[in-house]
Amino acid sequence: MSGGVLSHPRFISLEGGEGAGKSTAIAALRDALLQRGHEVVLTREPGGTPLAERIRALMLDNRDSLRGDGGEDEPLSAEAELLLVFAARAQHVRQVIRPALQRGAFVVSDRFTDSSYAYQGDGRGLDPAWIADLERRAVGLRPGLTLLLDLDVREGRARTAGRDLWPDRIESEQDDFFERVRAGFRRRAAAEPGRFRVVDASRAPGEVGHAVAVAVARWLEEQA
Ligand code: Z5A
């Protein structure tokens, strides 16, 4: 327990910047757990439930979901963005994550609250004390293990360049935003070495997957 937030040993998150390879690495992580006979629930944030996925679409859509009736743009404020990701998370934790943990499954989430500290805190400049308060009141749960896939910002963006016809609201940010996000993730990892494992994501996908599987295997041994 840390400040009213419970750390759960079967709850694992993957974090990192755009193009870090989380979707690819998550398969290696799932396989490492399945090989040991565990039930694994893969999920993602923002999202993971039908309602939370609708909130995700609202938060990330750059095109028309935020237009008023007259067709005028209505920019989403940083504050509203933060509250939307926490609304989605509150729902996700209660509908999916806690029930799965309670029945003994491992839950692997592509992003969790560390992303809010990095993107809304370091990226948008919102007060981390407010984020901590939301984490405590609306979530109350933290992963026991967080794998941070660390990658040079330009390299990550080069990997995803041209992927989407319309980049989403976050993808449309400039490099300096993503540099602040990366620095925020690295600072959190350095401050919590017991929870974080930093993986060099510049290597080939197979090597990154192997590093993730090894990190999880070691962590499971430490828990035994
Ligand atoms: N967000 C937030 O602001 N606050 C919050 O609290 C939360 C989230 C929870 C989610 O969108 C956005 O929400 C995210 C933060 C924000 N925005 N950003 N940036 P998302 O889930 O769509 O975005 P993402 O998590 O960044 O997804 P991504 O860009 O697809 O990254 P990824 O999952 O880490 O990468 P990937 O899909 O595995 O791979 C991307 C490409 O790189 C693909 O073409 C791969 O073939 C290639 N790849 C992967 N690994 C390698 C290696 N090792 N070498 C070469 N190429 C590779």
Describe it.
Helix 1 crosses helix 8 (205-223). This protein has helices spanning 22-35, 50-60, 78-102, 113-123, 128-139, 153-160, 175-191, 205-223, and strands at 6-16, 40-44, 106-110, 141-150, 196-200. Helix content is 52%, strand content 16%. It has a single domain (6-223), classed as P-loop containing nucleotide triphosphate hydrolases (Rossmann fold), CATH 3.40.50.300. It has eight helices and five strands. The mean pLDDT is 93. It has a five-stranded parallel β-sheet with strand order 2-3-1-4-5, with helices on both faces. It has 224 residues and is of the alpha/beta class. Ligand Z5A is lined by residues 16, 18-24, 45-46, 85, 111, 115-116, 119-120, 159-160, 170-171, 204-205, 208.
